[in-house]
Write a structure and sequence with these properties.
This is C-type lectin lectoxin-Lio2-like. The protein has 152 residues and is α+β, with helices and mostly antiparallel strands. The protein has two helices and nine strands, in the order ββαβαββββββ. The relative contact order is 0.29.
């Protein structure tokens, strides 16, 4: 079942989270771009999840912990132009920040996507190479009266 919570980005419309989804394939994980594409296929404006406040951080962290407690998870924050300007895949404003200490560090000049790490309870962001394989979490718009996640 999806978990709904209000967000300013959707003008107060409820959103739902899908459980962290593996990509189709043996590895059960995907790089950032394939993860975003898999979210988009879910419909209803789905994207990799944007985490826009400390309260949303708590909701997302709790949700991931209950569905995928042992691995790192993509969220929808990235630097598509490789100029250290971070953007959300759903177009939300980038005002809230929850970076881990010393992040973002762009280690080896190749970290342009963001994960939530299981060490630390999925509450802090880490920039990492977009080609790394991760589970991912999608967020989508709920329609009135709909409480089931898409594709389930």
């Amino acid at each position: 079942m999806g978990f709904a919570f209000p967000t300013k980005a959707a003008a107060g419309a409820p959103l739902a989270l899908l459980p962290p989804l593996p990509a189709l394939g043996a590895a059960d994980t995907a790089g950032f771009l394939l993860s975003q594409a898999a979210c988009r296929k879910q419909g209803r404006g789905a994207h990799l999840a944007s985490v826009l406040s400390s309260s949303a951080t708590e909701v997302v962290a709790g949700y991931i912990s209950s569905h995928y407690p042992d691995g790192n998870v993509w969220i929808g924050l990235h630097d598509p132009r490789h100029n250290r300007v971070w953007t959300w895949t759903d177009g939300s404003s980038f005002t809230y920040r929850a970076w881990r200490f010393w992040e973002p560090n762009n280690w080896m000049w190749r970290e342009y996507c963001v994960e939530l790490r299981h060490f630390g309870g999925f509450k802090k962001w880490n920039d990492i190479d977009c080609k790394r394989q991760r589970a991912f979490i999608c967020k989508y718009h709920l329609k009135a009266g709909v409480h089931q996640p898409l594709g389930r």
